[in-house]
């Protein structure tokens, strides 16, 4: 199997009915970057909290600048999506303790950074400075629940943009206004896509948190692990609705949760209309291989059946039957 996957490694990511699918990498450390360079993919999600978690204090603006510069320069022709700090929940910062009874429902992602604009501004300034002369910076906001949070974040990003443009005005290349997007991972945003689309350039679906919050199942709690499944028909119907709404709003959308890196997940997402999938680097070759054997027209037949299922296990059976029929199981 590994050999068969490998034999397709450098072939274009298109379905058997010629639909191109863009594969992107989820990253969070520079080691993964090297892998990403090898495979020539862009970065659909760079989790900036990971380098923050490995330190003993907040990295300074210049330390962050160095890091983001290295990432943006690693693939200047590809889109690079840097997500603003997503700490809280299961991702603690040793030097910024948060004690809460319900951390996943508490001070997480933009909730924290909008309450601490100095943290947010330093990070965005570092990203913008690093983007000088490049055109690939995309800034992604985690844990957005309300339109007002996007307004607040956009205001701060604008402020940083004006400051940095002014500081760098002697540079010939200058900086470009970054593209700004939001994570769709809190169920409330499913009902606000049309409003959000007017304020952002792109969306990125976080299936890990979307599953956790839709099913009210802690994604890290072993006791309820059996209840946590992104193949739950409720999650799939939400994902399908998101794809349709993003299409109607004419706003690009990527899926960056774990589901995109699973063969069964990738084919369901393609059937829903998603064309950009971001995943851990080690899944890229396998998913490329699956996509090269999949057929969107056939998947369009499979999707209504999957969405009509009552149990995640039925969906998994349907999907496995399809993968087996293509000898991909
Ligand atoms: C997600 O929630 O699906 C996601 C990609 O973000 P993270 O796993 O970092 O919360
Ligand atoms: Mg998330």
State the gist of this model.
With 329 residues, the protein is α/β, with parallel strands linked by helices.
Please specify the SSE layout and strand pairing.
Elements: H1 2-7, E1 22-27, H2 30-39, E2 43-47, H3 49-53, H4 61-74, E3 80-83, H5 110-115, H6 117-130, E4 137-141, H7 147-167, E5 179-184, H8 193-197, E6 202-205, H9 207-215, H10 233-248, E7 253-255, H11 263-272, E8 276-280, H12 284-293, H13 296-308, H14 312-325
Parallel strand pairs: 1-2, 1-8, 2-3, 3-4, 4-5, 5-6, 6-7
The structure holds phosphoenolpyruvate and magnesium ion.
Phosphoenolpyruvate binds next to strand 2 and helix 9.
Describe this structure in words.
With 329 residues, the chain is α/β, with parallel strands linked by helices. The protein has helices spanning 2-7, 30-39, 49-53, 61-74, 110-115, 117-130, 147-167, 193-197, 207-215, 233-248, 263-272, 284-293, 296-308, 312-325; strands at 22-27, 43-47, 80-83, 137-141, 179-184, 202-205, 253-255, 276-280. 47% of the residues lie in helices and 12% in strands. An 8-stranded parallel beta sheet has the order 7-6-5-4-3-2-1-8. Helix 4 crosses helix 6 (117-130), helix 6 crosses helix 7 (147-167) and helix 13 (296-308) runs antiparallel to helix 14 (312-325). It is globular and about 60 Å long. It contains 14 helices and 8 strands. It binds phosphoenolpyruvate (PEP) and magnesium ion (MG). Magnesium ion (MG) is lined by residues 142, 185, 206, 208-209.
């Amino acid at each position: 199997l590994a050999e068969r996957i490998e034999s397709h490694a450098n072939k274009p990511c298109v379905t058997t009915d010629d639909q191109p699918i863009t594969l992107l990498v989820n990253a969070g450390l520079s080691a993964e970057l090297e892998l990403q360079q090898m495979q020539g993919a862009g970065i659909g999600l760079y989790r900036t909290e990971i380098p923050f978690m490995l330190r003993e204090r907040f990295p300074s603006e210049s330390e962050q600048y160095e890091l983001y510069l290295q990432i943006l320069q690693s693939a200047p022709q590809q889109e690079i999506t840097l997500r603003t700090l997503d700490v809280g929940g299961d991702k603690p910062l040793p030097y910024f303790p948060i004690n809460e009874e319900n951390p996943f429902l508490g001070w997480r992602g933009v909730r924290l950074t909008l309450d601490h604009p100095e943290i947010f501004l330093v990070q965005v300034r570092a990203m913008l400075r690093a983007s000088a002369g490049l055109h690939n910076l995309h800034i992604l906001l985690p844990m957005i629940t309300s339109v007002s949070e996007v307004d607040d974040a956009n205001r701060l990003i604008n402020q940083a943009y004006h400051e940095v443009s002014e500081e760098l005005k002697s540079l010939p290349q200058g900086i470009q206004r970054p593209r700004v997007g939001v994570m769709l991972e809190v169920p409330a945003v499913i009902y606000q896509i049309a409003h959000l689309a007017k304020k952002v350039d792109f969306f990125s679906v976080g299936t890990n948190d979307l599953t956790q919050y839709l099913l009210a199942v802690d994604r890290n709690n072993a006791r309820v692990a059996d209840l946590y499944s992104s193949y739950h028909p409720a999650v799939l119907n939400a994902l399908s609705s998101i794809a349709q709404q993003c299409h109607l709003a004419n706003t690009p959308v990527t899926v960056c949760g774990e589901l995109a890196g699973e063969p069964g997940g990738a084919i369901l997402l393609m059937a829903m209309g998603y064309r950009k999938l971001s995943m851990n680097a080690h899944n890229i070759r396998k998913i490329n291989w699956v996509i090269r054997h999949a057929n969107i027209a056939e998947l369009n037949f499979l999707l209504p059946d999957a969405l009509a299922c009552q149990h995640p296990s039925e969906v998994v059976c349907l999907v496995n039957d399809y993968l087996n029929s293509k000898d991909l199981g």
